[in-house]
């Protein structure tokens, strides 16, 4: 079977979910741990121009992927809550103009506590946003200062309260394995967070990314993060506390009450299609049975000029072969508590996973295989997930 036919057949096994990711690249300040495509501008942003460019790139992308029904939209960044509600409305209107949108579409907007106002949230809701994700990151002022955040713990909790009044669905992020953090401190903070979180928390272990200020400080010995044993204890506390209080992990870093999972992020982890719109956005589109991995120009002003001249800001459009697509499916799908169907891996790659490797990983307690054949990583396997994926993909 040729690559195109195999990928087309595998595509038929997927659900009909289709996501649109829109990247707003601007922030009030750059956090010292952040390696996302975010930029600080001291002059006013021309939102009308950016909204027009978003609409143009949406139109061009929809022409490449017609007939889709959008099931989720995610406005990420950067700090999308720095956008005027009218700008958000223009983006959502453009999506609705060029694709069909599901009646129950999930529309998430990321917000920072420093940019949360009740009136602005009411405007986002009127524009069509029905879920917000708040970048809280910590619930104590010392940690927030160390992380370079511009809000206090009190401001964070006030922002969560505004989100609770404004939207039926909301989530917030916390970072753990911070300098000087102990498992007992984290357990207390986590219990407070779960009291405030209606349905969803994203809990990320602090990683020191090359190119960030934290990387230089860490290399110089001026920033000390928990050692491997403490980091593992912090991870275990995360799982135990969230399980006990009704927010089990449905993905390695995301916890939700049953039915409250972020549908847009599930699009990524289940290997489904999504369009990437805006500076530095990535996408995965199936065109003529072949998976395209797209990426746009990262520099905001350069992206705008590209879109205005050619209708899109895409600078990378790679065709994934069957092996690459299968490996990506494995890498993303095994992050989920639900695991993967090995038959879909076989359909994508043209070869099954090695039964000997599966048997060995089962013996080691890193994975389980249920009666239907579904393969899942165990709680003891998740901390070494990269090694599990590499072993299965070999």
UniProtKB/TrEMBL annotation:
Name of a matching Pfam family: HemN_C
SMART domains to which the protein is assigned, alphabetical: Elp3 (SM00729)
Stretches assigned to the Radical SAM core domain: 12-248
Domain of life: Bacteria
Compartments (UniProt record): Cytoplasm
GO biological process annotation, one example: porphyrin-containing compound biosynthetic process
Keyword tRNA processing carried by entry: no
Keywords for this protein: 4Fe-4S, Chaperone, Cytoplasm, Heme, Iron, Iron-sulfur, Metal-binding, S-adenosyl-L-methionine
The protein, known as: Heme chaperone HemW
Organism, scientific name: Bradyrhizobium cytisi
């Amino acid at each position: 079977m040729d690559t195109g036919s195999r990928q087309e057949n595998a595509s038929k096994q997927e659900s009909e979910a289709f996501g649109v990711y829109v990247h707003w690249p601007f922030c009030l300040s750059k956090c010292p741990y952040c390696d996302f495509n975010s930029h600080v501008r001291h002059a006013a942003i021309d939102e009308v121009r950016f909204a027009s460019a978003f609409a143009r790139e949406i139109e061009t992308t929809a022409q490449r992927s017609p007939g889709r029904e959008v099931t989720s939209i995610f406005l990420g960044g950067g700090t999308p809550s720095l956008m005027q509600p009218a700008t958000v409305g223009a983006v959502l209107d453009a999506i609705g103009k060029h694709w069909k949108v599901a009646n129950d579409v999930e529309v998430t907007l990321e917000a920072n506590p420093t940019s949360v106002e009740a009136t602005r949230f009411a405007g986002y809701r009127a524009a069509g946003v029905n879920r917000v994700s708040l970048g809280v990151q910590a619930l104590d002022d010392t940690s927030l200062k160390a992380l370079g955040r511009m809000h206090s713990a009190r401001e964070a909790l006030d922002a969560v309260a505004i989100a609770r009044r404004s939207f039926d669905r909301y989530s917030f992020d916390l970072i753990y394995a911070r300098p000087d953090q102990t498992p007992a401190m984290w357990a207390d903070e986590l219990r407070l967070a779960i009291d405030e979180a209606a349905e969803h928390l994203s809990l990320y272990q602090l990683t020191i990314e090359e190119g960030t200020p934290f990387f230089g400080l860490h290399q110089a010995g001026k920033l000390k993060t928990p050692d491997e044993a403490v980091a593992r204890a912090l991870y275990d506390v995360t799982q135990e506390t969230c399980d006990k209080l009704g927010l089990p992990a449905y993905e390695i870093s995301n916890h939700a009450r049953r039915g409250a999972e972020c549908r847009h992020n599930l699009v990524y982890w289940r290997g489904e299609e999504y369009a990437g719109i805006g500076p530095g956005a990535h996408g995965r589109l199936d065109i003529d049975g072949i998976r395209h991995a797209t990426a746009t120009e990262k520099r905001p002003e350069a992206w705008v000029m590209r879109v205005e001249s050619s209708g899109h800001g895409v600078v990378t459009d790679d065709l994934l072969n069957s092996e690459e697509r299968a490996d990506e499916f494995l890498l993303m799908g095994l992050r989920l508590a639900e695991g993967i169907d090995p038959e879909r891996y076989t359909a994508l790659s043209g070869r099954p996973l090695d039964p000997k490797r599966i048997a060995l990983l089962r013996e080691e307690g890193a994975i389980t295989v249920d009666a239907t054949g579904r393969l899942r990583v165990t709680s003891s396997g998740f901390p070494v997930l990269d090694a599990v994926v590499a072993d299965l993909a070999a």
